[in-house]
Amino acid sequence: MGEDPNAWNNKHGHLQYDKSMAKTVMTNDINQFRQVGMTEHNSTEVLIIDIGNTRAKWAVVENQTVGRRGVMPTDDLLATLPEILEESDAPVSWSCVIPDLADLLSNALLKSGRQAWRLTCHDAPGLSFTTYPKPEQIGHDRIANAIGAQALVGSPAAVIDIGTAMTFDLVTMQYGFIGGIIAPGLAMMTDYLQEKVSLLPELPPENLTLGPRIGRSTIEAMSVGCTRGYLGMIQTLLEGVREEFSELGEDEPTVILTGGATRGFIREALSEYRAEPDLTLLGLAEAQLRRLASSKSG
Ligand SMILES: Nc1ncnc2c1ncn2[C@@H]1O[C@H](COP(=O)(O)OP(=O)(O)OP(=O)(O)O)[C@@H](O)[C@H]1O
Ligand SMILES: CC(C)(CO)[C@@H](O)C(=O)NCCC(=O)O
Ligand SMILES: [K+]
Description:
298 residues, alpha/beta, Nucleotidyltransferase, domain 5, five-stranded mixed beta sheet, 10 strands, disordered N terminus, binds adenosine-5'-triphosphate, binds pantothenoic acid, binds potassium ion, metal-binding, metal ion binding, potassium
């Protein structure tokens, strides 16, 4: 029963979205973020921690600009936490998609005495889930992406995030987060082929380029499957999303790429769309700014 994002914007006076600006300001991703809709505050520093299945990222975000930052294997997060907390005294805004680790981190943060907010569907200011039957199922990184998209380009928006898994996170004008798509991440495809088929070699995803349409060697044949095949999946999924938005009476969603979708052949093939590598972090920062704004406005 979250609030309608537009009602929230009107009430709190933030996130005024200007479509013409979003299309013309193309200089610097962070400036863009600030100019089109980030909540304005006086020097508000936030310490962000975003924990995915493979890697954990931290960043100090001040005035919607990412400063010091780091990334590590998710398994190293707890051991690294004291060092991360020394990077900034600011409140922590975090998300974690591994429930056991989230419990451990929650306790560690409590012990540290730091003010910390975990992004969940129950505390996702400005994002509603009115038509989503069980919002508590949604990965919190996806909630961060949705809030980041609202702030960056406004709704409707479609985020394509490739990490361990690929997700589409879809935000409408009328209903907030309406749902999305979960599919294998690119490495799941390449690694799994190699792991399960004894005659297939290793194919690091970062080495993939768009080559021929027909493979004339084993590695080439795999490469076609994992590049053109993967892109075909994305395009088909996006087509379905567009149709559904149209049926809902929504405008055409602005597509934002993040994670692995901002790199390599995927980025190249989808160059018409905006890429924001820090979307999840910025969404976590925005969530914290909105909490502060609503606590101030009472
Ligand atoms: N050139 C490339 N083109 C497309 N995808 C790539 C490329 N290089 C790496 N990737 C994929 O992007 C993913 C890495 O993206 P990202 O850094 O967002 O995820 P992660 O932090 O590893 O995952 P998670 O957030 O799930 O822990 C990997 O799965 C990798 O396979
Ligand atoms: C899909 C991932 C793995 C993407 O990181 C994460 O968001 C997650 O574990 N989600 C839970 C299932 C859901 O989002 O519906
Ligand atoms: K991620």
